[in-house]
From TrEMBL:
<dbReference type="GO" id="GO:0005737">
    <property type="term" value="C:cytoplasm"/>
</dbReference>
<feature type="modified residue" description="N6-(pyridoxal phosphate)lysine">
    <location>
        <position position="415"/>
    </location>
</feature>
<dbReference type="GO" id="GO:0042423">
    <property type="term" value="P:catecholamine biosynthetic process"/>
</dbReference>
<keyword id="KW-0663">Pyridoxal phosphate</keyword>
<feature type="region of interest" description="Disordered">
    <location>
        <begin position="124"/>
        <end position="179"/>
    </location>
</feature>
<dbReference type="Pfam" id="PF00282">
    <property type="entry name" value="Pyridoxal_deC"/>
</dbReference>
<keyword id="KW-0210">Decarboxylase</keyword>
<dbReference type="InterPro" id="IPR002129">
    <property type="entry name" value="PyrdxlP-dep_de-COase"/>
</dbReference>
<protein>
    <submittedName>
        <fullName>HDC protein</fullName>
    </submittedName>
</protein>
<dbReference type="GO" id="GO:0016831">
    <property type="term" value="F:carboxy-lyase activity"/>
</dbReference>
<dbReference type="InterPro" id="IPR015424">
    <property type="entry name" value="PyrdxlP-dep_Trfase"/>
</dbReference>
<keyword id="KW-0456">Lyase</keyword>
<dbReference type="InterPro" id="IPR010977">
    <property type="entry name" value="Aromatic_deC"/>
</dbReference>
<feature type="compositionally biased region" description="Polar residues">
    <location>
        <begin position="124"/>
        <end position="134"/>
    </location>
</feature>
<feature type="compositionally biased region" description="Polar residues">
    <location>
        <begin position="149"/>
        <end position="162"/>
    </location>
</feature>
<dbReference type="InterPro" id="IPR015421">
    <property type="entry name" value="PyrdxlP-dep_Trfase_major"/>
</dbReference>
<dbReference type="GO" id="GO:0030170">
    <property type="term" value="F:pyridoxal phosphate binding"/>
</dbReference>
């Protein structure tokens, strides 16, 4: 067969199959049987002929087929696997509220004295415009459980330390032959005992991730149907689902319909896609990368600067702008930095504002930053990964003033919409710029695919080309519960943060920072950092809550973020009493309480 004239030959695989079948009939199962074919290749300078003996064994092929068909599960097998998997999930979720968010089992006699409970209306905490009181007057008591041992994850005096517990085991190894679904699930379910339980109501550290049942079902459906969701020609409906989410989020922030975006694996990738677009538009020549300047606040998430290396801009200059007394980027200092850089022949190209800093929850003054960015022809990116979906709440909408003028936005559905980890979203106001930075040039193997230049394929709006079909994990919960449910859940967290602030504000020895979103900072003033770390240890040592410290403007604080949708007022009441008890145990001198913010 002359492969240089391949198009003139019948399909070689079809011919070969016929040859094999004919010989199978002729030889009556006398395998193995060799078939020899010569393949010729030509070049302009010489002709090369290669001979290869192909050995074909139909019995071997049959055995392979029988084994491969194991992957083709029956409806009964799928039902059995799903039932058993759901049983493991239910067992984990039932235990979730009984255990510490990092592995400790709640100790016995976790009770609340009636004298410690806030009385209705005492602090006039309101849950909305109708001044409805914010929850029951009674805090729930914890279960009678015993501690699981000193080797569990614990809050140390200096940092959170992950210990290796006695129950910790190695995962089931990858083996030549498979095992039963029961053994696989039994092994996997051990992960529940060896993880930070971010869906736990007492997990108040970092920015905890949560996931709902419809989101998990969405992932199951996405993996089961498994469409290639980045190209209209492959699955138009999957593309429409993603575009619907992107456009809906764009409208939340006031973006025009000409915006474009994509679901990503998280906020860092969303930021990287946006920064790539900014780079291509503002710094088109790589020789200028070393004089390009990126402006952040001292509280900007570390993932932003990390993106520079991935973008090939490691030599770019990074300016960290100090924050003011409300922990917002100081625009006056930003302007001075830019003026000085321009005078030194540098190229200011990008400034990042944050609506919901990870440390504090503060919101940068976007309108003022926009004015500076416009004056110096800079790209303005808004990091809304943590705080972004609070835009759903009427009480917080004013915090997002000016975001509609940003050139790009990054926001995390795996935070504010309670999607599973691995769900970010990038928006670019001028969608054409995003498309210009990412348009895919298809290989020859796709030359027969029907395309329409008017289609905006997700693969042309990101560097990803084989991404998971992420839309169902976001869309199904929104469709099932409605936007109002998510708005209420987020508003509840804002109210709980205010509630915690007001309760701690009246506590002796405690200095507390007024929250902007759902993050509350507090500390014992006038003592060493070690004393405040001792307070952290006292609060968390029995394993009911998981919080950490942060340092802002050189001051160490204990940091609480109320973000899990399972966290409610009774959980916050338990936490408040733990803070009170911890302060009493530390036997601090009598002083009047003080607060900040």
């Amino acid at each position: 067969m002359d492969v240089t004239n391949f198009s003139s030959q019948p399909h070689w695989r079809h011919c070969y199959r016929n040859i094999c079948t004919d010989n199978f009939v002729e030889r009556k199962h006398s395998f193995p049987s060799p078939f020899t074919t010569s393949f010729k290749t030509h070049s302009r300078t010489k002709k090369i002929t290669m001979s290869s003996e192909v050995v074909f064994n139909l019995e071997y092929l049959t055995r392979l087929e029988e084994s491969a068909r194991t992957l083709e599960s029956t409806p009964q097998q799928r039902s059995e696997m799903m039932f058993k998997a759901q049983r493991e999930v239910d067992a984990y979720l039932e235990q979730l509220s009984l255990d510490h968010p990092t592995g400790w089992v709640i100790p016995p006699k976790e009770t609340q004295g009636q004298d410690k409970l806030v009385q209705p209306g005492q602090y006039q905490v309101q849950s909305g415009p109708n001044q409805v009181q914010s929850g029951p007057d009674r805090a729930q008591s914890g279960p009678d459980r015993v501690q699981s041992g000193p080797d569990q994850v614990q809050s140390g005096p200096d940092q959170v330390q992950s210990g290796r517990g006695p129950h910790e085991t190695e995962p089931l190894p990858i083996q030549e032959n498979g095992v039963s679904i029961d053994e696989v699930l039994r092994d996997f379910s051990r992960i529940g005992n060896e993880m930070e339980r971010e869906g736990h109501p007492g997990h108040m550290a970092y920015v905890p991730g949560n996931s709902t049942a419809p989101a998990a079902i969405g992932d199951f459906l996405a993996a089961s149907f498994n469409p290639y969701s980045l190209n209209v020609a492959s699955c138009r409906r999957a593309v429409k689902m993603q575009q619907m989410i992107v456009q809906w989020v764009g409208r939340l922030f006031g973006y025009p319909s000409a915006c474009a975006g994509n679901l990503t694996s998280g906020g860092t990738v969303a930021t990287m896609v946006a920064m790539t677009t900014a780079r291509d538009h503002k710094v088109p020549r790589s020789k200028d990368y070393s004089r390009s300047v990126l402006y952040l606040s001292e509280l900007t998430h570390d993932g932003v600067a990390k993106c520079l290396s991935t973008l090939g801009m490691r030599e770019a200059v990074v300016r960290k702008v100090p924050v003011d007394d409300k922990y917002r980027m100081d625009v006056n200092i930003l302007r001075k930095f830019i003026e000085n850089d321009v005078q030194n022949n540098l190229l200011p190209f990008l400034v990042v504002a944050t609506t919901g800093t990870t440390d504090v929850g503060s919101v940068d003054p976007v309108p003022a930053i926009r004015a500076v960015a416009t004056q110096y022809n800079m790209w303005l990116h808004v990091d809304a990964c943590y705080g972004g979906f609070f835009v759903l709440c009427n009480s917080a909408k004013h915090l997002f003033e000016g975001v509609e003028t940003a050139d790009s936005i990054a926001v995390d559905p795996h935070k504010g919409l309670y999607a599973p980890f691995g769900t970010g979203l990038v928006l670019v106001r001028n969608g054409t710029l995003l498309r210009n930075s990412n348009t895919r040039q298809h290989g020859n193997y796709m030359q027969d695919q029907l395309t329409n230049p008017e289609d905006w394929n997700p693969e042309d709006l990101t560097f990803e080309q084989s991404a998971h079909f992420r839309a169902p994990r976001v869309l199904l919960p929104l469709q099932l519960y409605g936007v109002a449910t998510f708005r209420d859940a987020l508003q509840e967290k804002l109210e709980l943060a205010k509630y915690l602030y007001l309760r701690l504000k009246g506590q002796a020895h405690i200095q507390v920072v007024e929250p902007v979103l759902s993050t509350v900072l507090f500390r014992i003033p006038g003592v060493s950092d070690n004393t405040n770390r001792a307070l952290l240890r006292e609060i968390t040592t029995d394993g009911r809550f998981f919080i950490t410290t942060t340092t802002v403007k050189g001051v160490l604080y204990l940091r609480v973020i109320i973000f899990c949708y399972r966290t409610h007022r009774q959980d916050v009441d338990v936490f408040i009493n733990k803070v009170k008890d911890a302060v009493v145990k530390m036997e601090l001198p009598e002083v009047e309480f003080c607060h900040a913010g």
